[in-house]
Specification:
The protein is 90% helix and 0% strand. The chain is an all-alpha fold. The chain has a domain at 21-60. It is rod-shaped.
Length: 60
């Protein structure tokens, strides 16, 4: 008899399910970015060391 209440409850459940999926995607993307950050930082450090060694040859 109370169709408005049932519809509201279904919308709440649907919205809750969507929020769970979004939060899970954000959690996984966060870990992906953290792993990528380590790779980028390592590459930058390696390039900086290479440039320092390249400059060192001018002072020998």
């Amino acid at each position: 008899m109370d169709n408005k209440g049932q519809t509201s409850a279904e919308f709440i459940l649907l919205f809750g399910g969507i929020m769970v999926v979004v939060l899970l995607a954000i959690y996984m993307y966060k870990h992906y970015l953290n792993d990528l950050n380590g790779v980028i930082a390592s590459k930058e450090v390696d390039e900086f060391n290479y440039q320092l060694n390249d400059l060192g040859r001018y002072f020998k």
